[in-house]
Write a structure and sequence with these properties.
This protein starts with a strand and ends in a 6-residue tail after the last strand. The protein has ten helices and ten strands. A five-stranded mixed β-sheet has the order 3-2-1-4-5. It has a five-stranded mixed β-sheet with strand order 6-7-8-9-10, sandwiched between helices. Helices cover about 35% and strands about 25% of the residues. The chain has about 300 residues and is an alpha/beta fold. A hairpin with a 5-residue loop joins strand 6 and strand 7.
């Protein structure tokens, strides 16, 4: 029997965030009900179908291309790349791919474009749902890191709210610089200094490093009264990481002992203890410190792991 994969993407149009693609091979007589274009489903319906597809599909592949690559090769080529990644992640390899819209220019896997395929073909519908939910989950994590833009609501699309926030806060680390509304609102170090955003920018840089390395971000700037804020709380492999971030512009950091002294460590220790009690944490914990310098040639990051607490 010929093995056919459906392919679709999510996130070609937004001003921020990655473009994602999915490829799905469904059994010929699958039992998944309610498959349709992801845009016609509620978020709850998409989440339910996401689980059903992953449970029942012969294979599911996902491809993600981030904003840096989008700006480098353009959104069309980035979309193709995400689709190729998704197809490459399938096992078994399909004999043919049906792509929503237009065919892929590379025919290593023979493929055919189907206009409005996410309204007509089940395997494309399934791919549409996987791509959309995958991207939405990424944007929800970004909303924790960049709460000032409302990413959880608009997922990076150019809504009125998003454009207002873009003008007010300038572009973030995950905005697509090659898109005109973003290119007109790029922050400078001078602007960050004037608007007292140097510290926030550094915390967001550090949080993105954790996220890129597979951490789930729980919170930024968590207030642990009466001890003050914990800059970043993240988790990976049943270990909770608490991070203190020190950021400066245009100067070199000295030793870490000059950035986090005994008084600061004691405050952090108390704040972490309070968080652990408040949320009944029973996992391993770790304290990290990031030292970040912002400069004309880009940021320089130093990551100090597992700082000892008294």
């Amino acid at each position: 029997m010929e093995i056919i994969a459906g392919v679709d993407e999510a996130g070609r149009g937004p001003l921020a965030g990655p473009v994602t693609a999915a490829a799905v091979i469904l059994p010929e007589n699958h039992s998944i009900k309610g498959l349709t274009d992801s845009k016609k489903l509620s978020a709850k319906q998409r989440e339910q179908l996401f689980d059903e597809i992953n449970k029942n599909a012969m294979s599911v592949g996902v491809g993600i291309v981030d904003v840096k690559e989008i700006d480098k090769i353009n959104i069309l080529q980035a979309t193709y790349k995400a689709m190729y990644k998704a197809l490459g992640a399938l096992n078994p390899k399909p004999d043919k791919a049906l792509v929503d819209g237009f065919a892929l220019p590379n025919q290593i896997i023979p493929n055919e474009g189907i206009i409005k395929g996410d309204d007509k073909v089940d395997c494309i519908r399934a791919a549409s749902i996987i791509a959309k939910v995958t991207r939405d989950r990424i944007m929800e994590q970004y909303d924790i890191i960049f709460p000032e833009y409302g990413f959880a609501k608009h997922k990076g699309y150019g809504t009125k709210l998003h454009l207002e926030k873009l003008r007010e806060h300038k572009a973030s680390l995950i905005h697509r610089k090659s898109f005109k509304p973003v290119s007109e609102n790029l922050p400078t170090i001078t602007w960050l200094q004037k608007n007292r955003k140097i510290g926030q920018w550094g915390e967001q840089l550090a949080a993105m490093e954790y996220y890129k390395n597979g951490y789930k971000i729980h919170a930024l700037n968590h207030h642990s009264a009466p001890y003050g804020e914990i800059d970043i709380i993240a988790e990976k492999d049943d270990e909770i990481v608490f991070a203190e971030v020190k950021t400066a512009a245009g100067k070199t950091f000295g030793g870490i002992e000059n950035q986090v002294d005994e008084v600061k460590l004691q405050r952090l220790s108390n704040a972490i203890d309070k968080y652990i009690m408040d949320f009944e944490i029973e996992k391993d914990i770790r304290l990290d410190v990031y030292a970040i310098r912002l400069g004309k040639n880009g940021p320089k990051l130093k990551h100090f792991k597992a700082i000892e607490l008294e």
